[in-house]
Amino acid sequence: MPHFFSIYKFIFTLLIALLLVACGNDSADKNAAQANEPGDIVARVGDEVITFSRLSSVLNSSAMSRLSVPAPGTPERRQVILTLLDEVISANLVYLDAKKKGSDELLSYTENIKRFEDRLLASMYATNVMIGDIPVGEVDVIHYYNMETNKDVELTDEVKLAIETRIRQQKLETLQSTLRERLRENMEVVINEKVLSPAYDDKRTDEDTVATYDKQSVSWRQVKELMQVPDQHSTLPATSIDSYETRLDRLEQYIDNTIMTQKGREFGLEKDPVYLDRMAEYRKAYLVNQHSNTLMQSWNPTPEELKNFYVSNMEKIVIPAARKVQRIVLKTKEEAESIKAKIDAGEITMSQAVQQHSIDPDAERTQGDMSWVKQGAGGEGLDQLIFNLEPEVVGGPVESPAGWQLVKVLDVRDVQFESYDDVLTQNRTLMSYMQGKFIDYIADLRKNHFKVVIYDDELNRQLQKEADEFAQLNNKAEHKAEVTEQHDEKSHQWMVKPVTE
């Protein structure tokens, strides 16, 4: 059977991305709801709220970056928003189910949250405190211009901005290169080379001290995971890194991060709004991820169950053979034979024939392209012709309800996932199986465990508001383009002298 995590986890990837983008920091939304100020709240899942602005942000997020986003005010846009809303509701249901079952109290969850807290504090301390804002003054810009720039270059505002950016980057690189030195100032760090060495792996215990800093010790237990390379497919145990230099680099970074985490807490970064928002987002997303893994493990089918599922659901799993087809529709058989003869003789191309002779009302728009035609979908005569025709050969004519057709196969796609013995077929079967389990589970949560309310009036109001704002922007852009065109025309009139006799 295909490996567990590599196959199952895809179901929840989008849900977690949607949670991170669409839920964000819910505290403000909850406070608004408690004050009877719904704002743009369009749905509620238990005590979790979903706002229209959050849904809109999903459309601009990396989770949706590969999708074509319909314009506001179109039916397609409404459908996309409704689909996203359903996905975010599902993500919140998984989150509430996890909390109800105490998944947020598991040791694996609390340990992971602690590790993320430490990494975030260290990162924020390095960025906000050790590096901070990097000022670049007018004197810096002038000096750089005089010393580093070709004097033929005029010192325009654009050049000043480019110089300022370059100076800031140079200062950042300097600060980053000296970060460890400044961080460890007046602090002695001692590395126990013997304990760290790969040659000591058979003798070392978890309690052995691998380093000390600022009167604190680092045990092997604290860093041993850093000294391993995990198996990418999680099927084999992690292997130890056999390079001392790599181990040393990771240990040094661990010490730096630990120091910055401690200093970050002392500096009060745990109260920073950015920190609080990031932690709220991560806690929620990771809880969904952890609970999802638990659910997937409980749904893991036996090989026999999976094969039986394939047999019962072949129509959903098997992709029929298909041909990408271009066609011409003509009134009579005689006309079709005449056009085919001209194409075969090279007097006219298939595309030209479509433009000049096809009676298909969509021919001008589609150029005769039928896209992919699945086997069995084209009618008996047409289907037989298409699936017995060699690529790039014009076939027909064949009679159809639309008229007499000539067809050319542009591309071929054979039947897929027809053999269950194929690993790809088993993977696809497992995906379909797990999707069904997930849909049923979410339906049960929604029906029997958590109240879901959708505010249709507010959703419609927000959709209309979005459409109106989009229309206004378009009108402004069109007006600006019209003014620019008029200005260009007048400028042209001013610049061009009249021709005199």
Write a short abstract of this structure.
The protein is α+β, with helices and mostly antiparallel strands.
Tag the structure with descriptive keywords.
single chain; 501 residues; alpha+beta; Triger factor/SurA peptide-binding fold; Chitinase A, domain 3; disordered C terminus
Q: How are the SSEs placed, and which strands pair?
A:
Elements: H1 4-8, H2 10-22, H3 27-34, E1 41-45, E2 48-51, H4 52-59, H5 75-100, H6 107-131, H7 138-148, H8 157-177, H9 179-183, E3 189-191, H10 193-196, E4 209-213, E5 216-219, H11 220-223, E6 228-229, E7 239-240, H12 244-267, H13 273-299, H14 303-312, H15 314-317, E8 322-330, H16 333-344, H17 350-357, H18 363-366, E9 369-374, H19 380-386, E10 394-400, E11 403-413, H20 423-448, E12 452-454, H21 456-495
Antiparallel strand pairs: 1-2, 1-12, 3-4, 4-5, 6-7, 8-9, 8-11, 10-11
Helix pairs in contact: 2-5, 2-13, 5-13, 6-12, 6-13, 7-8, 14-20
How many structural domains in the coordinates? 4
Q: What structural class results from the helix and strand content? A: alpha+beta
What gross morphology would you assign? extended
Please give the count of helices.
21
End-to-end Cα distance, whole Å, is: 90 Å
CATH topology of the largest domain: Triger factor/SurA peptide-binding fold
Indicate the radius of gyration in whole angstroms.
33 Å
Main beta sheet strand tally, sense and closure: 4 strands, antiparallel
| Lateral strand order in the biggest sheet | 9-8-11-10
Q: Give the mean pLDDT.
A: 86
What is the name of the CATH architecture of the largest domain?
Orthogonal Bundle
Count the E strands: 12
Give start-end ranges of low-pLDDT stretches. Answer: 3-11, 24-38, 490-501
Helix content: 55-70%
CATH class label of the largest domain = Mainly Alpha
* Beta fraction: 5-15%
